[in-house]
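> run fold DUF1275 domain-containing protein
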Amino acid sequence: MDVTLHTPDTIYSPRHVPSWLFLAGAAGAVNGVGFLMCEQFVTHVTGTATRLGLEWPVVGLVGEYAAVVLSFVAGAAASVVAIQARAARGQRPRWATPLVSVAALLTGVALAGHAGAFGRFGGSVAADPPPVALLSVLAFAMGLQNAAVASTTGLAVRTTHLTGPATDLGIHLGTALVGTEAVRRAALRGAALRGGKVAAFVVGAAVAVPLARNFGFLALLAPAALVLAAAALSFTTNWSPSDFPFRLEPGRARPSAPGSRHR
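> ok
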């Protein structure tokens, strides 16, 4: 089933590139706030799975780490179902639904945490209630986000981790060194996007420090706002795909909205 929203042209358009950076920055902030809350990451599935293996003799810890990993996977699955279920019925997909859900989850965690539902911010990992509940909700949200972007860009863009983008960055740079002029230009464009996502993730984590220090759980409202901005900019199909911030010449047909062929 072809329900891809973005093509290579729209992925690199001036309108949509900021969205990928916003989402990478949001993931960096969520990961940073998660670590500052309870000294564990939520988008780093590789690290969490490694901890799961290292702690296998401790049944309780294994269960907690497994819950976080499975929550990320469940979020990814839910994202695809939310988009493809309507397409399977011949209806227009609601592309923004997963990202709006991410923003709602982050906002809910921020408000619940501020009200004391997750204990003291920055408390012990052994606090009551256990951090697995908090980490699982955040991991689910990040799975939603990553799959929403990956599944609608033909798996070309991912925003919640850096291993893939860093690998792609190296591949593009290597290609630029040995390719023809046209290949070099395309490779450098790809390298710029991947490098930008890495930088945005780092900046998001860095900004999380003063936000968490001053606002505690409410720091999660900042990545929620970034996710909503990306959803409005790149997952609202009433706008044409690539003309922002440019205007079409008079008399020239306006391009159809992405995804219109799937109505």
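Residues 239-263 have pLDDT under 50 and may be disordered.
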